[in-house]
Amino acid sequence: MTEEKKQITQNLMLTVAMLILLVCAAVPILTEWDPARMNYIRWAYAFGAVLALAERLTERYNGSNVRLRRLVRMGKASALCYCVSAFFLLWPAFSSTATYDRRDWLAFLLAGAVIQIYASITYEYVLKKEKKSSQEHGSRKQG
Fold it and tell me: At CA 142, angle to CA 130 and CA 137, rounded to 5?
C-alpha cells in the first residue's frame, strides 16, 4: 500500500470512528435512557472506540521533531481514553451487581476529546511551522 493510500485509509477510519462516537454519545444525552436501545448504542460506541484506537496505532511519525512525535502519542492517548470510556459504558452489560452511574463514561469521553482537539490543532500548526522553517533553510543554502 502506498503512503498516500495509507493516509487516506487512516483519515477515513478516524472520521468514521469519530462520527460513531459522536452519534453514540449524543443519543443517551439527548434522549430518554432506554435500556433496550442503549444495549445497541454501547456496542456501537465500543466499535467506534476500537476503530479509533486501531487507526491511531497504525499512525506513525518518522521525522525528527520531538513535539510532533509527542502530539502523535497524545492522539494515541485520546484513543485509549475512548476505549476506557467504552469499558465503563459496557460494564453494566457484564456485571449484574455493578452500581452504575451513567456519567462515568462521559468523563473519559471528554478527556479524550479535549486531548484529541488539542493534539489535532497543534499538530497542523507545528507541521506548517516545520515546513516553513525547512523551506527557509533550503533557500538560505541555495542563496
Answer: 20
Per-residue pLDDT, 89: 85
The candidate with the shortest Cα–Cα distance to 52, out of 85, 29, 30, is: 85
Dist. CA 86–CA 45, nearest whole Å: 6
Using a CB cutoff of 8 Å and minimum separation of 24, what contacts does 69-72 make? 71/119, 71/122, 71/123, 71/126, 72/119, 72/123
84 residue type, one letter = V
What is the residue whose three cell numbers read 497542523?
Answer: 124
Could you report the per-residue pLDDT of 32-52, keeping only the tens digit for each?
Answer: 877 777 888 889 999 999 999
Number of residues that this document lists for the chain? 143
The pTM assigned to this predicted structure is 0.83
- Orientation angle between helical segments 66-94 and 104-142, nearest 10 degrees: 160
Residue 83: φ, ψ to 5°: -70, -40
Distance CA 35, CA 140 (A): 65
| Position 94 confidence tier, pLDDT thresholds 50, 70, 90 | low
